[in-house]
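Page header: ASSEMBLY MODEL / two components / 416 residues total.
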Amino acid sequence: MARVIAIASGKGGTGKTTLTANLGICLAKLGKKVLLIDADVAMANLSLILGMQSSPITLHDVLLGEAQVHDSIYDGPQGIHFIPSGLSLDNYKRVDSERLSGLVSELTDNYDFILLDAAAGIEKNVLSALSSAQETLLVTMPTSPAIADALKTKLVAQRLGSKVMGVVINFVMGEKGEISKQEAAGILELPVLGIVPFDAEVRKSFMQQKVAPVSLRKTSSDAAREFQKIASRLTGIKVAESKIENQGFFSKLFGKFKK
Amino acid sequence: MGKGFLKLFSSKKSDDTSKPVSQVEFLRDFLSKHNYVFSNDFQKNLEILKRKHLVDSFVVTNFDGSIVAASEDTSQSEAIMGTAMLSYIKSELSDSEAVLIKREEGWFMLFALDKKVFIVRAGSELASIELKSLALELSILLEENKEALKKERKIIG
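Prediction written out in full:
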């Protein structure tokens, strides 16, 4: 029986889709059977991050009752399975996102983890994603507007009966004005499951001939290593630090010179 | 190589940020206003549910219109009207899940679950997912209250 986890934030641009893609890959690296669902039916872009934008049958078709759910599942990188949302706006208004929950429950027996990439905001299609998941993982940034929106999302998730398991703080740069891990945990009253540093390698992952998440393209990057640690915390599988490719100060410094 | 070395250090910007202390305090305070702790007092628990689900009032009835529980004392007319309306719509459109009516003073919503009718009033409309989660929580409260009353009766007996 899969653990169904919605990845949500309230605020846009916090890295929900990036976390969903990379966490899925890292969970698969730990031997887990993983399904990613792009539950952002309006602004779908998980398929772009995975480099799988040309998928003919999408979640839109399933929610419209025009396709079977199993026909919308694609093989993704690292053995993950993936249900994309349609990129076109044609069907978006016709889609009944409230059917998502029934669709997810059809699939729980086949996976260890089902990750739902929720949209920003707390509108109907976000509610659908949250209520389809037993657990919610919040993604935020170390700034007060992002934490405020995460707080509201936490309350909405709880209202819908989804257990909020923790928060991942993304884009951490170590500046004095950032809200610290302890403060974020205190405000949200949640455990912090990961601190993902701001890493140019994540951005560069979208700027390739063949787009691939950083956890595949640059496993030694700071962000990729943190994604692997989050996966490890979720599964309880300990990964030796040496297995998560380490990059010391000097290799980073010489790496800069090479460029 | 020299160019790369200089670039590395020149790109290091000075950190002129500082902690938004008052905002951190504000956010800390925010959650304390949304703490929903249920007690043994059934009527108080209904009030908590109202606040948690952001609604103005609700009534739970049987399909004959008799009230099972209500957040307000003056819910009889709403109960009869709501149940009759839902029965009529269900007879015409049997697969309808919820009925949402926009009225001058807000939204009036009808939802059926486990042989009960949930009649909800709120300032803005709730998605049927939200109505369902409210109905589920109410059902749990009703069940707990029923058990508590049974126990009470046993002690008295």
